[in-house]
Specification:
Layout (H helix, E strand, L loop, with lengths): L3 E4 L5 E5 L4 H14 L2 E5 L5 H12 L3 E5 L2 E5 L10 H4 L8 H9 L1 E5 L12 H9 L3 E5 L2 E5 L8 E3 L5 H11 L5 E5 L5 H12 L3 E3 L5 E5 L8 E3 L4 H13 L3 E5 L10 H6 L3 E5 L2 E5 L10 E2 L11 H8 L5 E5 L8 H8 L3 E5 L2 E5 L8 E3 L3 H13 L3 E5 L1 H7 L3 H7 L3 E4 L1
Parallel strand pairs: 2-14, 3-13, 9-10, 17-18, 21-22
Antiparallel strand pairs: 1-22, 1-23, 3-5, 4-5, 6-8, 7-8, 10-12, 11-12, 14-16, 15-16, 18-20, 19-20
Helix pairs in contact: 1-2, 1-4, 1-6, 1-7, 4-6, 5-6, 6-7, 8-10, 8-12, 10-12, 11-12, 12-13
The structure holds uridine-diphosphate-N-acetylglucosamine.
Uridine-diphosphate-N-acetylglucosamine (UD1) binds next to helix 1, helix 5 and helix 6.
Amino acid sequence: MAKLLIEGGNRLRGEVTVQGSKNSTLPILAATVVAEDESVIHNCPHLSDVDTAVKILRFLGCSATRCGTSLVVDTKSITCDHIPDSLMREMRSSIIFLGAILARCKKARLTFPGGCELGARPIDLHLDAFRRMGVTIREHHGDIICFADKGLRGANIALAFPSVGATENIIIAAVKAKGTTVITNAAREPEIEDLCTYLNACGADIRGAGEGTIVIEGVDSLHGTSHTVIPDRIVAATLMSAAAVTGSDIVLKGVVASHLGAVIPLFEEAGCDIQLSSGAMSISAPQRLKAFPMIRTTPYPGFPTDAQAPLMAVSTLAQGTTVFVENIFENRYKHAGELTRLGAKVKTEGRVAVVEGVRELYSSSLQAYDLRGSASLAVAALAAQGVTVIDTTKYLERGYEDFDGTMRSLGADVKMI
Ligand code: UD1
């Protein structure tokens, strides 16, 4: 397996364009199945999770062709209503195809999804919502077998937690259901809005995307469209972290600043100068940062759980103590133990992590355990003395397009071996 080699200490300089959002691309690719037509999705990042979504589409009998960062997806024909376990296990988002297949075929068979191990990650909210929409669900030897012989019907669905994946799955299932679906306590993430923008352009009738209540009037048919995926706010936060930890000045192009509303003020409080102009952000970091104010992860518009790990890397070298409270996933501090191998002072207990900033980090050999955790280790290694080797690639490639190339273009000494 390939490894990342990072010689720390270089200051970063220059401009990069932030890739398209992984967490938007995946549900939109699933939603193409209900459009039953050709859609062209632009700004799809080259990631292994996106490759998995393409494999699922092809397994279902659809065609998907890549041309640069655009994917031409034709879902007029679909020959299959199940997803094999091998593809389900490759990523969590494979479950978002359930709503799409049910809407299209009135039945579906798949297994429990894989993805990063961040805790239990159940799918009860997805399945409960489908039951309310008229789906009968049986579990048999690990298979989830779903039938909606009379088709899906609209329903009032109150989510116990504003789950991103459940909200997406319900929206995709509801756009062609009979009647009205109302989701209360819906997730408000920008990726939900992006999915709804795509579906509405296909002829769906969705109101309230980005708000806590989403109303979907079922329509008889949809058509294809072309759509450009929003920039990836978590990749942007990771690049900001890379600049901050190395005391650097960089410019990020293709950023939607409002999507980073809970992130930008933290960097400013830590001493970074951030300037925004249309679609671009410059970040200029001091030699040594101050500790961040307390960081609590919460659903959007709060601080994103996916940015917790990269910011923790930054906090290891800041002056003072940063306290993190992880409220979304119960097991999302696996990077903390690896950061201590670089000399960081991190203590975790349950959902809380306390990071006491040190003056310097030194290189080590590290193991990544999940996607954002691997980004955290890479960010810390950029500032550590010596060469750090990170066994990470399988995770990093799931969410960061050409991570080493991007970092090299900014002047970092990063190699993939
Ligand atoms: C999505 C993102 C992921 C991000 C997360 C939270 C994608 C591809 N992934 O994941 O990067 O970290 O949102 O912002 O978009 N839960 C249940 N039952 C369910 C579903 C969820 O209890 O049926 C719980 C989860 O265990 C977790 C919380 O709800 O504790 C949030 O999960 P959810 O918002 O669903 O995350 P994902 O959609 O899996």
